[in-house]
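## retry 2 of 3
previous attempt timed out at serialization; input unchanged, resubmitting
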Amino acid sequence: MNATTIKTQPTVSVPAILAFDVSKELLNLTTSIAGRMTDHEFANRTLIIEEQLIAFKRRAHMAGHNQVLVVCEPTGCYHETLMQTAHRLGLETAWVSGEAVSKMRAIETNDSGKTDIKDPHVIHTLASIGKTLIYRRYDEPYSLLREWNGFYDQADVATVRAKCLMASQLKVLFPDYGFKKDFLYGNSGHALINHYGANPYRIIKSGKKRFTQVMRKRAAGIRQLTIDTLYQQAESSTRNQISPRKNEIMAYRLKQTWEDYLLHNKRKKEAKQQMEELYQEARQFDPKLPLAEKGVITTFHLARIIAETGPLSDFSSLRKLIRYAGLNLREKQSGTYRGKTKLSKKGRSNLRKVLSQIVLPLVKRDSLFGPYYHGKKERDGMPGTKAMTAVMRKFLKLFYGWYQSGCAFDRNRVFSCKSQHELAA
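## retry succeeded, writing output
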């Protein structure tokens, strides 16, 4: 009798939902199979997860479900074992956004608190009404691009931090140093630090003649005026004498920070090279991916975009790509009230970061988006940050159209719609 009932289940095509709240050590699960809601808890370990998912899959099929949906919030890394195991076992997978969980929790429980017991129920409710996000799994080389881009970002942040520390420590050690910040990171600056540690006491101790000889030998092309100025700044910096032991500590700190800078800068270069190679590999799978265009975008920045978007073929429209980047507009309106229209910023923040770095050199007056950007500011009175956002949206639209066309870059298409271009042709 039970078997007959199962065969005629009216919801046979609806997947059984396994809603998980994921932590480092534990998985809390809420599921409803055959109309019965149950809660479970087990360790976040591969063999245990595999055993439990197989058991729930068997129960779901016995209850008449054709498929099982595993759904959770993104956690950074703790969800990986669960989602990879589910995928390997042939189960469907999906996300729910943390914001949706937070707001639904307040609706469902009338409580803003968070617990490992409540959250799986809330996630189950969201999945039941279809409020899930696609869980995208990237094959190589896209998955490798994403990883290397993460390495590059970490190294870039660490490099900037090291340069900031360098500036503050140099002010203490060499108070009258007066060159621009980029001077240290050129040939002359490298020579100054590598041989003298940017220590004015060492410079003065070596004498003007010896200092000149060393700098000319180690920094080819350095001007005599630069050498004279550095020596004068070192002389004035040593007028207020500090103890040798304190000077030694300050010099040591600067040396350590310089070594950190060199290490992280080297890692950036390694990541950049790997990403450029992987982008060329990706073009073998998808020849529509654009080639670098001088004055517009480099291979490295193309690789960074693809690292954040994944396969562009996943986006069936420009609107979906813009929403993925969080560059879609959000309006506030109630009755006669009209709030400011702002960016949603709900998409991938790293993609917005990459786009902002790409368009920054393109908004100079003589560059691709110069007239557009300055027109927004001067003619429309738009603030600079808002105008930059408009350029980012414009560039993403350009990039998506460029990809869809599969053609070489055409500057005439940047500020004309498809119909205008066809009419001109």
